[in-house]
Design goal:
By secondary structure, the protein is mainly α.
Length: 199
């Protein structure tokens, strides 16, 4: 899986080159599956730890549940739904890109969406990891503050917008502004559902 980690590094550093290679890679479906598998695994471990520690999220969840039950809902409902959200975002990109005469196939769109949205989510995962370490060391059940959560959210969103815009432009061979508009509205869809299940 050395290519998996190489793609992650190159997408961060040289996204245009990396996505050109990924689209042509005959193993892109396997790599995409592995990307999702690792993402779901580390989030599952984090949520199980937070459930066990009786952690309290810093804001009231969108779902009609208590703050200390958010992680159970995220584990049981959010993580399985994440796969469906990826398919929804890919379908939206595929349809809207065609309006700009995009030429990419849905299979390729799904792969670049998985990589573009997942890599920043690895970064966002550190919010939970640091919260776990803080709870263990301090004995407090509270996760990191809303201010720290907001910083992680903003960085993750901007990172996703940057990577996804490059991915859509490369795959569908459209103008940068067109790719930006498509990516922006795709992330509105993504974060609408992400906030429901995870915040």
């Amino acid at each position: 899986m050395k290519y998996f980690f190489r793609y992650i590094f190159e997408i961060i550093v040289t996204p245009n080159k990396a996505f050109i290679e990924l689209i042509k890679d005959i193993n892109k479906n396997k790599l995409s599956f592995f990307m999702i598998f690792i993402l779901l695994l580390i989030y599952s471990i984090a949520f199980i730890c937070l459930i066990f520690l009786k952690a309290v999220f810093p804001v009231k969840p969108v779902l009609n549940i208590s703050q200390d039950n958010l992680f159970l809902a995220a584990f049981l409902l959010g993580l399985p739904s994440l796969i469906l959200i990826y398919f929804m975002c890919s379908a939206f990109i595929q349809v809207t890109a065609k309006q700009f005469e995009g030429i990419g196939y849905f299979e390729d769109t799904l792969s670049v969406v998985i990589f573009s949205l997942s890599i920043p989510l690895y970064l966002y995962w550190f919010y939970y990891f640091i919260s776990i370490m803080t709870i263990i060391t301090t004995g407090s059940a509270n996760c990191l503050s809303i201010n720290i959560l907001s910083i992680f959210l903003i960085i993750t969103m901007l990172f996703q917008l940057y990577i996804l815009t490059n991915a859509v432009r490369i795959l569908h061979i459209i103008k940068l502004w067109q790719a930006f508009v498509i990516s922006f509205f795709t992330l509105i869809i993504f974060w609408f559902f992400f906030i429901i299940f995870f915040i």
